[in-house]
C-alpha cells in the first residue's frame, strides 16, 4: 500500500499543470475513490484537494519568482480561469500577491511534496475483530459539530447536556444489539480530516426499531462489514489515539478499506480507574482484492 501511495504522489506531481483525477489515484492504489480520499486525508492531515492546491501554488511560485512567463500564463497553466482568481489563491497561501512577489523577490511559503514511509514504533498490538452486521438503525439525538482532535469536544458535551434525562431513558430503551447501550456515532460531511471540519454527531443507540419515536433522529445503516477495535486508557486521549492508529496503521496494513457509514464509539468508565475508560470503536469497512 505504501508503494502505491507514493506512486499516486508521483502521479499528482506529474499532473499539477493539468487535471488530477481521483479515479486515477484510486486505480493506482487499487482502492475506491471514497477510501482513497479518506485515507489520504487521515495520513496527510488535509483533504486531497487542499494538498493539490497547495502544491500547484508552490510550484507556480517558482515560476513567479523566475520572472517569466507572464502571470496570466502561469495562472492558466495551473488551472485558474483568470489572473484575479490566481492572485487571490496565491495571496491566501503566500501572504503576498504574485505581482508584488515578482517585483520584490518576497519570501514565500511552500507545501512540501508528500511521501509515505513505514515507521516502526515499539511493538504494540492492535486488537480487532471483523463483524458482519445486518442492516440496523442509529436512533437518538443529532447535532452538527466541528471535529476536534485533542481533548473533550465542548460542542458534543453541550449537545449531550441538552438532552433531557427522560429522553435519554427512552433512547437507551431502544438498544437491542451490539454495540449495546448508548453510543456515539459520527458521520463525516466532507473528505477532509482537518480540525474544524463538520460532523453529524449522534448520541444514540444501535437498534432495529421499525417505528422509533418521531422526536428522535434516525440514521439507516445498510448491512455490511465492520472492523471493531478495543482499548483502555485515559479518557479521551486513549480513544483519540486509537482512532488515529486505525487510520495511520491498521488501514494501510490490512486488506480492508473505508466504506460510507457512521463510525460508532462505545465508552464506559473503567472499573479499575475512574480516570480511564474502556472503549470500543466500530469502523465500516469493505474487504479489498488481495
UniProtKB/TrEMBL annotation:
InterPro entries: AraC_E-bd, GyrI-like, Homeodomain-like_sf, HTH_AraC, MarA-like, Reg_factor_effector_dom_sf
Keyword presence, DNA-binding: yes
Xref: SMART domains: AraC_E_bind, HTH_ARAC
Gene3D superfamilies in UniProt: Homeodomain-like, Regulatory factor, effector binding domain
Alphabetically ordered keywords of this record: DNA-binding, Transcription, Transcription regulation
Pfam families according to UniProt: GyrI-like, HTH_18
Signal peptide: none
MF-aspect GO terms: DNA-binding transcription factor activity; sequence-specific DNA binding
PANTHER family assigned: RIGHT ORIGIN-BINDING PROTEIN (PTHR47504:SF5)
Name of this protein: Transposon Tn10 TetD protein
Record organism: Streptomyces lavendulae subsp. lavendulae
Amino acid at each position: 500500500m505504501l508503494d502505491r501511495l507514493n506512486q499516486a504522489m508521483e502521479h499528482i506531481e506529474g499532473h499539477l499543470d493539468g487535471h488530477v483525477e481521483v479515479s486515477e489515484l484510486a486505480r493506482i492504489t487499487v482502492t475506491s475513490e471514497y477510501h482513497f480520499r479518506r485515507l489520504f486525508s487521515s495520513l496527510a492531515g488535509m483533504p486531497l484537494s487542499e494538498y493539490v492546491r497547495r502544491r500547484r501554488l508552490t510550484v507556480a511560485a517558482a515560476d513567479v519568482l523566475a520572472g517569466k512567463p507572464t502571470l496570466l500564463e502561469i495562472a492558466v497553466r495551473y488551472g485558474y480561469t483568470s489572473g484575479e482568481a490566481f492572485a487571490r489563491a496565491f495571496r491566501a497561501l503566500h501572504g503576498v500577491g504574485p505581482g508584488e512577489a515578482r517585483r520584490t523577490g518576497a519570501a514565500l511559503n511552500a507545501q512540501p511534496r508528500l511521501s509515505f514511509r513505514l515507521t516502526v514504533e515499539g511493538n504494540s498490538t492492535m486488537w480487532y475483530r471483523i463483524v458482519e452486521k445486518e442492516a440496523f438503525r442509529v436512533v437518538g439525538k443529532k447535532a452538527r459539530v466541528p471535529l476536534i482532535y485533542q481533548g473533550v469536544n465542548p460542542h458534543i458535551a453541550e449537545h449531550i447536556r441538552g438532552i433531557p434525562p427522560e429522553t435519554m431513558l427512552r433512547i437507551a430503551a431502544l438498544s437491542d444489539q451490539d454495540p449495546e447501550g448508548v453510543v456515539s456515532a459520527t458521520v463525516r460531511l466532507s473528505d477532509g480530516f482537518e480540525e474544524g471540519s463538520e460532523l453529524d454527531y449522534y448520541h444514540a443507540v444501535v437498534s432495529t426499531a421499525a417505528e422509533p419515536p418521531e422526536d428522535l433522529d434516525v440514521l439507516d445503516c445498510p448491512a455490511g462489514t465492520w472492523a471493531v477495535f478495543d482499548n483502555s486508557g485515559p479518557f479521551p486521549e486513549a480513544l483519540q489515539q486509537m482512532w488515529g492508529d486505525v487510520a495511520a496503521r491498521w488501514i494501510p496494513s490490512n486488506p480492508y478499506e473505508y466504506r460510507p457509514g457512521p463510525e460508532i464509539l462505545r465508552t464506559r468508565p473503567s472499573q479499575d480507574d475512574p480516570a480511564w475508560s474502556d472503549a470500543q470503536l466500530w469502523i465500516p469497512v469493505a474487504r479489498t482484492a488481495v
